[in-house]
Amino acid sequence: MTGAVPVLAIDGPSGSGKGTISRLVAERLGWQLLDSGALYRIVALVGSRAGLPPDDAAGHADVARTLDVRFGSQTDGSEQVLWGPEAEDITALIRTEEAGMGASRVAAIPEVRAALLQRQRDFARAPGLVADGRDMGTVVFPSAVLKIFLTASSEERARRRHKQLKDKGYGGSLADLSREIAERDARDANRPVSPLRAADDALVVDSTPMGIAAVVDHVLALAGSRGVLPRG
Ligand code: DC
Questions:
Q1: Ligand 1 centre from 222 Cα, in Å?
Q2: pLDDT tens-digit series, residues 165-203
Q3: Closest Cα to atom 1 of ligand 1
Q4: CATH code for the domain defined by 7-225
Q5: What residues does each domain of the chain span?
Q6: Rounded to the nearest whole angstrom, what is the distance from the C-alpha of residue 232 to the centroid of ligand 1?
Q7: Please, where are the H alpha helices in the chain?
Q8: Is the pTM of this model over 0.70?
Q9: Residue 135 beta carbon below 6 angstroms from any ligand 1 atom
Q10: Closest C-alpha to 212, from 2, 70, 18
């Protein structure tokens, strides 16, 4: 399945800091990165552009199967997402709250999850992969060397997300965002296929009182205890 390539799975709810932590941990290890949430966001965006109703399972599965997407890096090291034959930069478009909601909806469609399974596993290339998502440890990479379930209180997650979006010009209130996050969490945790939950062998890390650097160091220490060491 994942062959001999070691995988570090980082799962958790929205706003737990998974994206930032996964990117920084991948950098420190010199490993590849899979942002699986981006794949669901892209499927939702491309589906909505094609005029698909949110519950069109076959249509969205088709989009997922034929997704022409490339991941790259911006000059500041953050992720860049290019879509289609003309390599349209859709990085900002998939990061909106609307795209997140759409992603949560299409992610509940079993055919979409099935269509994205192998594509996600193909990200596992030497020397290793940090996989960020909701079901990395439970479904996609069950034999990951280390499974982290990163969480934080819902108030703290809403606050972090609000700050992140405000920096990008989002004008909504913290209360609206809290409600949206709660709605998204409930859908992700209660869907019948691959619901958001910690794998039985995952280590739960509560980042509520921690800064980014402390979480990265903690995850690297846990990885070190499994024989995974930073490069250099
Ligand atoms: O991590 P994110 O906010 O970019 O994820 C967007 C949505 O995609 C999230 O609401 C749930 C879904 N998702 C999923 O179901 N499985 C994954 N492995 C990653 C994301």
A1: 24
A2: 788 777 778 898 888 888 888 888 898 888 889 999 999
A3: 37
A4: 3.40.50.300
A5: 7-225
A6: 32
A7: 18-29, 36-49, 57-65, 97-106, 110-121, 154-167, 174-190, 212-224
A8: yes
A9: yes
A10: 18
